[in-house]
Amino acid sequence: MLRRFWSKCLVQSLLSLMLCDALPAAEQPNIVLIYVDDLGYGDLGCTGGGAVSTPNIDRLADEGCRFTDGHSAAATCTPSRYALLTGEYAWRRKGTGIATGDAASIIAADRVTLASILRRAGYRSAVVGKWHLGLGTADLDWNRPISPGPLDLGFDESFIIPATGDRVPCVYVEGRQVVGLDPADPIQVSFSGPIGAEPTGLQNPELLKLQWEHGHNATIVNGISRIGFMSGGHKARWVDEDMADVLTARAQKFIEQHVSSHHQQPFFLFFSTHDVHVPRVPHPRFAGRSALGARGDVLEQLDWSVGQLLKTLEQHQLSRNTLVILTSDNGPVLNDGYRDEAAERNGKHRPSGPFRGGKYSAFEGGTRVPMLVRWPARIPPRSTSDALICQVDFLATFAALTGESLPQGCGPDSRNLLPALLLEDRHGRAHLVQQAGALSVRQGRWKLIESSKGPALNRQVNIETGNLGQVQLYDLTADPGETRNLAATEPTQVAELQQLLDQIRNGSDNDR
Fold this sequence. Notes:
By secondary structure, the chain is an alpha/beta fold. It folds into three domains: 26-181 and 237-421, Alkaline Phosphatase, subunit A (3-Layer(aba) Sandwich), CATH 3.40.720; 188-231, no CATH class; 432-505, Arylsulfatase, C-terminal domain. 23% of the residues lie in helices and 16% in strands. The N and C termini lie far apart (60 Å). The relative contact order is 0.17.
């Protein structure tokens, strides 16, 4: 009897241990979305790039899944970010082009967003890093509380750069307030003409530590001239070399404070890095580390930031049940306005991998970006998937993941791709619209690019735009580099895809 009793106790103990080990997989996972700026499909070791060292990012692929057909919703940043947060293609809405530094909030405060749907599911959310979706109203005063902003869109905490590193105002905004604001030195911002007596890159090139190539010749901040004009706020201005450290530390702080104060509540961290965007000014620890010059250096700096976040998750035993996604807002660009030798020192490195085009382009290199997903509790290591997946789907997918339903009319273009994310579905989307100068539509192996006006080459950045003045049709299975336009020999396929694109454009797409 005693032996049977102890045997029964042992079995129950083993079952309890097994259940405890499996429990996190049944809980709502923490979510860390690492949103990189201007990272190309071929920039990482795990996607075929060997010119720079990215061991921490490559580790995500080794311990999770690499999606080979993952996409941003557009070939530029603001529309991609809009689509990611709202689940709606940005081309459906006016005013969602590349935002100026003083743009009003593009997303209405009453809009359902990725953060607000996760808040409804019990998550505590933070955004750290680049925002570039506008802030406040059209008459925004940077010296007063700023609203609307991330806190009005579902985030509980925010520490952001308002637009991009190459646009004024060059300040951090925490919550609703500029960090380090000095009432005696009020901030003024203008994108219509000079203000104050600040030196500019155009008139004072001798003050620059990084020369401008095109379009970046207005107010000088930290020895770098920017897009737009700014006066005041001198104590609040950032130091570019420190930006990765500042943003990474803030992201780590959110995780650590969450663990100590809200440990029973899941969290969502939207870590939106500034690297690899211009101006590329790495911290001295990373300057000169790569063979690719400043662009390669900030790629290695980005990898360090990712490694710091992964280390923080490990230190708090959060790795197993934390869903980590790393992806980019659009494809890569080399010379994007500063003389940092990114093009001259690129060598044989192919930032877009096997794909044509890059940032600003309707070709695959514009939106086909790295998409790495790690969730040890649910996703097997060293996996790959060819499923067609897009960032516009994160809204519906995260809603499904957390058991939430989207209100009627919200996220009209977002699809629940949770089965694809968990490798239970190897197909993903039935179709995808890609936004650049022209609209494209993907379905299966086929891609159609609409005829559009405009130059075929963006000469400033030396990237093909995809604007060829005629319809283009490519078989991406046979021709991933989009070298052979089959429109003339496949008229039926062209007609079917054009009809599909028209249906989606008119809102009659029923693929839900």
